[in-house]
Amino acid sequence: MGRFMENISYEKVRNGKNSFIEFKDVSMSFPLRKKKGEMINVLSDINLEIQKGEFVTIVGASGSGKTTLLKLISGILKPIKGEILINGRPVNKLRRETGNVFQKPTLLPWRTVIKNILLPVEIIKGEIKEEDKERAKELIKMMGLDGTEDMYPSELSGGMQQRVAIARALILDPDILLLDEPFGSLDSITRERLNLLLLEIWHKTKKTIVFVTHSISEAVFLSSRIIVLSKSPGRIVDDIRIDVGKKGRSEDIFSSEYITEKVIEVRRRVKNIWVKEIKKNVKDIRVMSSKQSLKERLINHYEYLLIPVGLVIFVLIWGGISRVAKLPEYILPLPKTVFIRFISGIKEGIIIPNLLVTTIESLSGFAIGATLGFLMGYILAKSRIVERLLSPYIVALQAIPTVALAPLIIIWFGFGLNTKILIAAIVLFFPVLINSIVGIRSADSEIMELLTALDAGPFQTFFKLELPSALPIIFGGLKMGITFSVIGAVVGEFLGASAGLGSLINMARASFDTSLVFVSIILLGVLGITFYLIVSLIEFLILGKTVTKKI
Question: What is the spatial distance between Cα 140 and Cα 158, in angstroms, rounded to a whole number?
Answer without folding.
Answer: 16
